Automatic annotation (TrEMBL):
Source organism (scientific name): Vireo altiloquus (Black-whiskered vireo)
UniProt domain Phosphoribosylglycinamide synthetase C-domain: residue ranges: 1-71
Gene Ontology cellular component list: cytosol
Signal peptide: none
InterPro entries: Formyl_transf_N, Formyl_transf_N_sf, PRibGlycinamide_synth_C-dom, PRibGlycinamide_synth_C_sf, PurM-like_C_dom, PurM-like_C_sf, PurM-like_N, PurM-like_N_sf
Name under which the protein is recorded: phosphoribosylformylglycinamidine cyclo-ligase
GO MF annotation terms: ATP binding; phosphoribosylamine-glycine ligase activity; phosphoribosylformylglycinamidine cyclo-ligase activity
KW Ribosomal protein (keyword) present: no
EC number: 6.3.3.1
Gene3D superfamilies: Formyl transferase, N-terminal domain, Phosphoribosylglycinamide synthetase, C-terminal domain, PurM-like C-terminal domain, PurM-like, N-terminal domain
Enzyme class: ligase
Amino acid sequence: GLLQAKELGLQVFHGGTALKDGRVVTSGGRVLSVTAVKQDLMEALGEANRGVATIHFQGATFRRDIGHRGLRLLQQPLYVSPAQMFLPAPHIWATSDGPCRKAGGRSEGGGFAAFFDLKASGYEDPILVSQTKSLGHKLQVAQVCKRHDTIGQDLVALCVNGLLAQGAEPLFFLSHLACGKLDAEVMETIKEGIAEACRSAGCAFLGWEVTEVAAPCPSGHCDLAGFVVGALERGQRLLGLQRAEEGDVLLGLGSPGIHDRAFGVVRRILLTSSLHCSSPAPGSCGDTTLGDVLLTPGKMFSPALLPILRSGHVKGFAPTAEGLLGGISRLLPEHVSAILDALSWKIPEIFWWLYKEGNLSAEEMAQTFPCGIGAVLVVQKDLAQHVLQDIQRQQEAWLIGKVVAPCHTAGSHIEVENLAEALQLSCPQQLLNDTTAESQSQPRRRKVKVAVLVSGTGITLPALIGAAREPGSCAQLVLVISNKSGVEELRSAARAGIPTRVIDHKLYGSRSEFDSTIDRVLEEFSVELICLSGFMRVLSSPFLRKWRGKILSTSPSLFPLIKDGSAHQEPLESGFKATGCTVHFVLEEPSAGATIHREPLPPPQGDSEAALAERLREAELRAFPLGLQLVASGAAWLGAHGRTCWRR
């Protein structure tokens, strides 16, 4: 049966065997070890057992328990020790089938359960309030920086600050980590951060569950979610009910952190920046990296702020996890607006760097980032100084704005005055010295005008439209050209307000006439870059030479290109260990050196042709906007020898 095991792709290690007359025979003891390597432990165990079943010899025995202890371990949630459950013993107890032991012992049904005694915590007639948040983009930056000690603090702060908006006290916290491959050291670091943050918040950390996600999830990818439950007495007034009135004052609480929602923009800025996470932070003396500053956790405002929020002097409280404008908008009813003065508070230096490096406007900064304000309070004007002084005894806070009469536009409106000036004032002096007078007077780079050529079969146009609208995008879609009328891409462009043209190739006597017409329309709209999204016409050599280094396309394969259109089938048939898609410059002769961005996928083990095709489609939707941003920002360009050059 050894040959059959080998045909199954298994490895068989010999221990107690010998050669006799040219044959392999047993020589006692542990004869053979059958080994399977798979993406998943359960799958590997099944394959190894299949291999064992193919091998026969007289008196053969084998263990049937190998691997099951590991399976049980992976299926169990991971818990903190009893010492890390921070509320006094009468308040909380737990049952579990795992290593966490407290009063209550084990549950026969498995799983994890915890009980919280609200009366023992001093509540008489409580209302429970819950909040759940997750970290994705920021966790991915932490993975790149190989620094996870602040991630747990960020997650707890997001959840607990959300409870404060309702005037609730946090009671207990749970979390869930899902990742492509478990890393014990990373898990322990994140758990310690969560435990420390829960201790600061005065709430119990009941535990967490960890899931190892099977392929196609990349091994380094992680998602972290948290869930917190809090309480307040039924008679206590809930905050955040939009009771702000004209004449009220806005107080801002300082926080240097950048919340997870903004890290989608941060990652795009890092993609095109000459700095990396390991580079010295702008304005630092080299003792702090850019990654360290970006991963500074957001401030958690409980429990010190809770007495002030329950004093009756505060009309509303909102964290700025959705950006400065998003936080304030939660506090304003439609019949009022707000004016903020950015010169009234301290903006951390990192926001100046994001502003300049990301090619952002002041409005985009306020929409995307908290800009140094972690939360905003609405207070009646005659009580503002009293509340401000109470807060300033514990942390930085400022009077940052006021509620005003509504403007003529529908809904509430928020104006942040002097933000560009305040951002520049926050810049370290040495960076200001390096900034030219021209860039100071015109901080934003002009967006590159882009046309998209389609034929009705492409899938990437909506992704390109969405990416061009994101803060920090260096591309402006000004035209969509189709060689066929009535296709969906034309309707998508029209809905987005992008001009469209139909240039039917059937109406032209030659390919050069058709291309010349396209060229004239591109010149009419002052187009600088062209993206091909499922464009089914072969462009002529004169057209490609004129627009050399200005035409981008994607291929549903990694270079070298697969030309026959079977990119989703060939990896399955040829046994490729990796597949993916490529964004590249379009040249007369395709070249691997013209690659702009590759989006690799995990090995296509077990994928059907349809499943792999769908994964490649999703990869193209991610890759093309990134490739366009790299070229439009000037981070990548086509060199004289037909190879992609990169800004260092």
